[in-house]
Amino acid sequence: MIKYIFQVVRKSLVLAEMEARKLLHDPTEVITRAVQPILWLGIFGEALSKIRAIPTGGYTYLQFITPGILTQSVTFLAIFYGIAIIWERDMGLLQKFLVTPTPRIALVWGKMASAGIRGLCQVVIIFIFTRILHITLYITPLSILGVILITLLGAGFFTGLSTVIASIVKTRERFMGIGQIITLPLFFASNAIYPIQIMPRWLQIVARVNPLSYMVDGLRSLLVTGNFTKLPLDIAVLAVAAYLISLLSAYLYPSIAS
Amino acid sequence: MQSRQSKNFSNGGYNFMIESDNIIVVENLIKRFGDLNAVDDITFQVQKKEIFAFLGPNGAGKTTLIKVLITLIPPTSGKALVGGLDISRNAGKVRKIIGYVPQMISVDGTLTAYENLLLMARLFDIPRKEQKSRVIEVLEFLDLADHSDKLVRTFSGGMIRKLEVGLAMLNHPPVLFLDEPTTGLDPIAKQGVWDHLLEIRNKFDTTIFFSTHNMEEAAAVSSRVAIMNAGKIAVIGKVNDLTEQTKKENATLEDAFIFFTGSTIRETSGYREARRSRQKQSRLG
Lengths: 258, 285
Prior knowledge:
Chain A is mainly alpha-helical and 258 residues long.
């Protein structure tokens, strides 16, 4: 069993390392993907911060939405990993991986870790931009470690979710439609750009079962409020959600190839 | 096709047990998709060191058969052994003793040739201290050593196919499955790919199982040929035996195909297959 777990972790890291090498060969995507969160912060955030209509618990609106925009950037990137998996199937890469002696769960964890690496690149760029906008955040070694952990877990969960969707819909065209249907409602039904308390009752229920809310909450406590009382719950929910979705993904993953 | 001059190449030393000379044994294999029997109750054996061709038009069931044998999709019923291992019960062990070159492009164009090979070496559990030497060995064997640090998306179609063969042989598998390995390649690139495949077979006693709809290719390299049509095997035998049975003077494998199936190699595939085939040809340049 220990040997098996070691093999799964080792092969997941191999796949993640290759993703990092791809980014080093061509970092263009990191730059282009950073445009959207920069627009959210620079235009949407700046505009709404002038209105002061949204209760933000004593913090500026830009401080309040920075964790939300970080989360949005990472989750949107991760959720479209499903398209990459379908593309790999169409190319023949997926079949090649599936006939190696690699546990299916390692292939899924490898994808999750790969999305995590790309997500961390987004986090770095957004951090730089927050400096330009003079947004005050708690940047300590502990908060950085926490942000890395939550980013990896969040990216992992949404990559797992996208793998499940890709396994079911099987074509890029269908995935694009489903991806749009899922990502925006998940974002708006969370505490990313406004607090849960101002939502209607039914939406509050949705927001409280939305893993994206826990990711935002964890990042907000680490970077903005410094109140860590709910942080263990946020991390636990993300970890359990990521683990369970990885099991389902590993079960469905081979069906993409058929 | 002529074999190339031998090069220094170490043996993989795989442990697998088979009771006879048959390295692939298939009995009453069926793969059904809805109402369609893509593979329809077929039985055959392939001996060690054979170059065995599955010949048939698009949609005949060749790719499905290979996908079942390499454990990519499960059979609906029937039995298949690869290297003495049941593909349904020992899928994990089967994956350790096979190499596979898919019909589509299976290398990552955003990585270098070296990185593609290193990735596969790690996924095939090649010991860490041997990984680098094994990768270099394969690059030299395939005459790709000078291109090892170039991104694969800059390669020609022939180089890509050679690299794919290299990925499949990294673990020195006793059985190599190739799904239409030369589709989309020009004659010189085809020759280059087969020269390397024949050298691999001579060095490691590798069994080569490949599918093709190219009659000339099948006739040139195969020890035996199975003619497949609409999911069934029409006939199996050596090329000369099959052509002689047509009773036609200077008969070709195409004549044998018509004789045994009552039809010509025809396009039976749909939109998806046609799109995939054209995309592949476009990518291979």
